[in-house]
Amino acid sequence: xxxxxxxxxxxxxxxxxxxxxxxxxxxxxxxxPTAMLLTGSGNITQADIDRIxxxxxxxxxxxxxYLDFLGGVLHGDLGLTFFGKTSVNALIxxxxxxxxxxxxxxxxxxxxxxxxxxxxxxVHRGSWSDQTVRLLSLVGLSFPNFWLAxxxxxxxxxxxxxxxxxxxxxxSSLVMPAATLGxxxxxxxxxxxxxxxxxxxxxxxxxxxxxxxxxxxxxxxKHALRNCLIPILTYVGLQFGDLIGGVVIVEKVFNWPGMGxxxxxxxxxxxxxxxxxxxxxxxxxxxxxxxxxxxxxGLVDPRVRLR
Amino acid sequence: MSxxxxxxxxxxxxxxxxxxxxxxxxxxxxxxxxxxxxPTLFPNVNKMDLRxxxxxxxxxxxxxxxxxxxxxxxxxxxxxxxRISLVVGVVSVLGAVSVGTLAGLVAGYxxxxxxxxxxxxxxxxxxxPFMLMAITFIAILGPGLxxxxxxxxxxxxxxxxxxxxxxxxxxxxxxxxQAARAIGxxxxxxxxxxxxxxxxxPIIVLMTLNVANNILLESSLTFVGLGVDPTVPSWGGMLAxxxxxxxxxxxxxxxxxxxxxxxxxxxxxxxxxxxxxxDPTSSR
Lengths: 307, 284
Fold this sequence. Notes:
Chain A is mainly alpha-helical. Chain A contains 14 helices and no strands.
């Protein structure tokens, strides 16, 4: 078990380090940020450029800059933005909760719908309701999440005036973003629940539970669901990266003040420290969630550890 | 947005299977055909007609799906935009499948150091979400079709490598492969003639689903300005343009979205049908 743990943690650390190198190096690929800072500022001497380069620290070799950046990251400091000179930490501290709120809300919503629906489909395998669920989930996997978001805006905000179109004005602003992401996740998860449930239902202990006369509801929700929750939650955990990727895009439609909006604003302003910070924080988060899922799965299922 | 889910234990009637094949086939063929004939049908797709701005659909026969804020015909742009989607979907998947299959065959057949390295790279890649990598690299290198396709190949070859490696591992010790080895057939020939054909089914299934998936990814990235050039007609670009007009001109956003949906749905239906037919591990 210790070996398994160490291997997983080692891999996680390695991936995060790889991301820091990638992120730090990618900024170098973009060329000299001073040129952009100085556009439109009239007559500039070489001395001005040198001064700004020194102030930004981009005149030093890459390794020195990288170690500096890494040192900052290890102290929990992501540096300053290029333009406003505000701290990237502060921007991310504002944006991250909004993104996580949306991510977990839509995840919860999708599980709330997909678990009962998936169980129903598995129990009634081959019935018309099973086929309908399958077809609907296929349709749900077939359009972009941001388009569903726009259609919701069109229907519920513009036509019916039930909900605000965008921004962040309390609970009503959460409904459409969470519903958009939740429904699309649901399309993925319902197939997963159905598959896991079918596998569990064919096991011997379910046969035993049924043959001793247990109520079907108890068999399904107490015996079967508990056991197939492990693969379901594992898979959901591994999808966390895709979930965050989806949230980031949908934020754009709703002007949701999260990490996606922060990143896209930073991209159009070419504010690289902010992009670095966003990517690094999200990647670390995703790696940690995956690590937690792996370890939890290893603890619960001894077969995994033996790999 | 991985679509290759471990779906097991289906028992479906022939009716449903045929429905998937027919509906998927019709949708996919229609979209491909439309994209192919688009340049001949609509050579002036980029011609602006400011007198015909924001015409609603079903009012003018010349613009039956309406026009956009610049007076472009929505149907002509949807037809032409399909070309981008198809190029991205097909080229990215062909690239990923070539690299991934080769790596998977080598790793699975020869094992050893190649296998170890491949699996470690796979672990790292699977931990890096596509959207974040895309944001990082496109923010720096600038948007465009080549970078988009390259990123998709870099992100997805691992899926094929793992799939093919797994199948190769189970095949390499089967009797017919051992027999071939015993009579002195060279390893590349065994891989080509005995291992690869047996892996073809699952590879084709994954390819179909990934073409669908990559069309969605492309439209998402183009929508946020990180995909193809906004002046080129593309479905994601049309949705980005139409977003500001959603209050006044619903058709500018509804129809390109439907085009994406029908295309991707068609491919997903075909993928599902193929999985039933070709992937022995998924049917029970």
